[in-house]
Amino acid sequence: MNRSRIAPEAATLWLIVVSGVLRVVAGASVGLGVGEAYYFAAARHLSSSYFDQPPAAALMAGLSMRLFASASDLALRVPFIILFAGTTWLMFLVGRRLFGPWQGFWAAVVLNLAPVFSLSAGIFYQPEGPLMFFWLATLYCLAPILVSDEPVREPIKAWIGAGVMLGLALLSKYTAVFLGLGALLYLLGRRDKRSILATAGPYLGVLIALLCFAPVLVWNADHHWVSFLWQGRRGANYKGIHVDWMLYNLAGQALELLPLLWILVVVEPFRAIKGRTSELAARRFLVCMGLPPIIAFTAVSGYSRIGNHFHWGTPGYLALLIGLGATVHRWLVEGGAAKRAALAAVGAVSILFMVITNVQAVTGHFTAGYGPLSRWLAAGNDPTVELIDYDVLETAFQQRGFLGRKDLFVFSDRWYVGGKVD
Prior knowledge:
Elements: H1 8-29, H2 34-44, H3 56-68, H4 73-98, H5 101-113, H6 115-121, H7 128-146, H8 155-172, H9 177-189, H10 201-222, H11 226-234, H12 243-257, H13 259-267, H14 277-300, H15 314-334, H16 337-363, H17 365-368, H18 372-381, H19 390-399, H20 405-408, H21 410-418
Helix pairs in contact: 1-4, 1-5, 2-3, 2-21, 3-4, 4-5, 4-7, 4-15, 5-15, 7-8, 7-9, 8-10, 9-14, 12-13, 14-15
């Protein structure tokens, strides 16, 4: 790989350009999903926070609508397609910083092979778009402070950067709180790094993050803390221990990443226990930053019905995918034919899955055909039916005597803006 005529930076940029064009085509071809139609209400009413989520995604979509003077599907999605291009680049940068340039490139590749990121957060209007970007930006700022054995020349600047990125991640989704927990776990686990907790840097970073997050706190204080109460209640509704619920959630996580890729990812934490000495610090950092949300939300699924919210813990997989990028690079350089064949299978299955999903979403081709796949989709298992454009809903509502788009999302407006469910 080192003999390649193309530099890893250039290869990553080509990956971003090619995948970005495909996402624009996909984003312009399918209607808004159910979740996006729900979030659309927030984009229509810009606010410092909302009932269900912090404001970052809604502000981006709302400003995009106003910039393009359009509420088209693509206008809503453009910020998130652009953000994912940045997320891919940050994936490369963090991988390069921790392991090396080609390791960073392969981390960017496996990110784009995971449908939950590439096909979902990378295209659609949802809070995960900015969350993933700022999650990786926080890792990029923290890595030189926490992982490197060399002293950082200006650590305060690095902590300020980490604080700003963490604050923006919190403005995207409350899940970002796990970034702070992960950094603390890592520092407590490294005896030679614990002294950092006695310096001003970490506390300055936390203070800056809270200042960035202040608009959400102010909005919640004016709305009886409804957002925090709502989100906290979703994970505190104890219904006894149900192992089958947890297994169902784990299966959903595996399906969202695709099982072959998921298996490779879940093995990564073990490389932080026994692996190359030169990589141990970086891999332990990634495990600490990745496992807490995955473990927490998987555990919640074992006692509280959280339905099909398999994606709640997926930000944690971002960190593990960075380590997988280093593993992929080593397998390609040093591994045998079996390892290369396994990687090729992962890539082929992932690309095939995303092609089939997009074709089905746009044309419904596979439902109308024959064979087991068509029968399975026709039996009510087609997830792409959720990609129903709100313009279609508006027409149907008008035909049935409703007033149209102004009142179409009135329930969602109350949900988001009023801070209560009527």
